[in-house]
Structures are given as C-alpha cells and as structure tokens.
TrEMBL record:
Pfam families assigned: Pkinase
Domain Protein kinase: 1-170
Keywords: ATP-binding, Nucleotide-binding
SUPFAM superfamilies assigned: Protein kinase-like (PK-like) (SSF56112)
UniProt xrefs under PROSITE patterns: PROTEIN_KINASE_DOM, PROTEIN_KINASE_ST
PANTHER family cross-referenced by the UniProt entry: SERINE/THREONINE-PROTEIN KINASE SAMKA-RELATED-RELATED (PTHR45832), SERINE_THREONINE-PROTEIN KINASE SAMKA-RELATED (PTHR45832:SF22)
Organism: Rhizopus stolonifer
Gene Ontology molecular function, alphabetical: ATP binding; protein kinase activity
Protein name: Protein kinase domain-containing protein
Family statement: Belongs to the protein kinase superfamily. STE Ser/Thr protein kinase family. STE20 subfamily.
Signal peptide: none
Amino acid sequence: LTDVVTQNYMAEPEIATVCLQVLQGLEYLHSKGIIHRDIKSDNILIGTQGQIKLSDFGYCAQINKTQSKRTTLAGTPCWMAPEIVQRKEYGPSVDIWSLGITAIEMVEGSPPHLEDPEQAIRLLTTYHVAPTLKDPEQLSVEFRDFLGKCLQFKAENRPSAAELLKHPFLSNAAPSTCLLPLIESAKKSAVLDDLTI
C-alpha cells in the first residue's frame, strides 16, 4: 500500500475499500486474541486482484483471559496509539488507532509528523492531542466521523473492529478491483524512478 499511497491520489471509495478489508482482517485477529500492533501502509499488501492482506506479524501479541492487556512498547512511532506511547496497558483498540493514522496516510500521502516522529510522540504524551488532517473540509462527513472514531484519544472510546465495520463510511467501499489502476500507476512510477537513477 505504501507505493500506492505515495504515488497516487486515493478517492474515498478506494480508501473505504482498504479500510473495510483491513477491519475484516483485524476483526478476525482480535477474535482470536491477537493484537497486530503495527498497522501501517508498509504492512498492508494489495494482491493482483486488489484484495487487501495484512502482513508483518512480528509485533503481534496474544491476549487471553489471564492476560487481557499488554504493556510492551511496540510498533512504529507515527502510528502508535497514545496508550502504547504512554506505556499504559492496552488491548486491540491500538490497531484501530493505527488504522485511523493509515487512513490519514491514504489521504495525505504520509502519516502526520513522518518527518518528525518525536513530535508525534510529544503531542500524544505531553499535550494529549490526536493528529489532525491538513484539510479536513475536503472529506465527507462520514469519513471525518470514521477518522474521529478511530482516533479517539481514550482507548475505551474507540469502537472495536466489529463495531467499526458497521460504520456508514464503509458503505462507500468499491469492489477490490478499484485498486488495480492505483497499483499500475505505482508500478509505472517505480519504473520511471529506476530509469532516472
């Protein structure tokens, strides 16, 4: 997904398609007591027919009835949920936060504060401020609401993957094949970049 995000403008139906399939994957993982802990564009793969797959399970953590929360610092700074950065106990909702950051990444081409990850961490630990979009008015009300739910600062206020799958924004999702032109465009850009080196 990273190549697509950095080389293309993604429309809301395309973003909804990615978010829908990521949430389906997260709902499955969470139902098995697994927290991914590193949701970001680098770890979201797009198949040849536009199907979305989660990858890089190296930071995954298992939770169960005896250990329902984790405390380990894990993930990639710009995508980390506040409770991870603040070294508090956390659960599956950290993946929902990271999906919200990834959705911003799909809109803007990079996550907030990519050039200064320490600033992202400072905003979460010192000021308790969730990242914002550069131009939120360009987005639909449904998409802004979806982001607002993902990026609830308090983990207990974030919906689960199963709950978020019912969000109206996801009804805008197009068939997976809508991602194919974006893949082709990203491939062409990569080839052109290789030729200019």
